[in-house]
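> run fold XdhC family protein
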Amino acid sequence: MRHLDLRVVSQALAWARAGEPIWLCTVLSTYGSSPRAPGSMLVAKYSGDYVGSLSGGCVEEAFIESLQDGAFQQVASIVRYGESQEESQRLQLPCGGILEVLVERRESSDELITHLEVLEATLLGQKRLVRRVDPDSGRYRVTLDESAGGPAVAREEAGEQAVVLIRIGPALRMILAGISPVAGYCAQFARALGYEVIVCDARDDVRQDFLASGQAEGIEVQSVLPSLFIASGGCHEATAVVALTHDPRIDDLAMIEAVRTPAFYIGVMGSQRTSQRRAERLARSGGLSEAEIARIHMPIGLDLGSKAPAEIALSVVADVMRIYNGRAEPMVDRTRSQVSDVA
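> ok
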């Protein structure tokens, strides 16, 4: 679940608490190419204000226009965008893409507010839930997600009806363990991809320079050692922990704590030689097992021949997304690190 979807749920909750009706939209499926994956959300109100995205293009405009023309008055409905070639071109859907969207019209109520509070807490926490919506009756509820993974959106036959199952889990989070030029670019790339970005650094001067640089907009900055933040429960299963300072006092301690968490990605910058020395250090001084050390991506990032800070950051974020999306590692020569000792 992207951080953008957390913003959607938080805005939906704010509008519901203010007593306003909301239209909650969820991408159910995509055919062909689409910028937004199943499970992506948007919330709108009749005035045309909205938060979130369905396609990153004109589908949002088409939806708002239809809404203000009086459409979507039923409690729940499923709409398909881009079915005809003309509509696909008009809505600027790439490669003939088609979107199937669940649209829910919800009046403000105590039940809805509680439901949205549960969703918000889930996106901020450790547990995964399944949101079950009956498109015919509009009834909805949440249950614990007891499956080991699964698609973001599925359908379950219930008699003559098909109930939509929408998995809700913690929003994608990236913890940057320490501030560096590479970390600054990494924060910007991750934020653009919809991550919740948290930067941890206890060094006052470095942190103040980062805040003054303008790179911290939309990013949470914690004045604490990264290892302490991680140890305090800062990681969940949708968290990537990335250490990019080249300072073992910061990077090594962050790695020691990160391998004890359910983070899906743990990585630290350094050349092949530096990484080998770090692995020996983590085993000798940190007491990490071979299995724990194997969880750490070092050298970090895809081998793009990166040298400049922005290039290295790009390789790091690309590798994080590769792991999150379950892609196999490209065949590369790991004896030639894409990140040098002086990066």
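Residues 333-343 have pLDDT under 50 and may be disordered.
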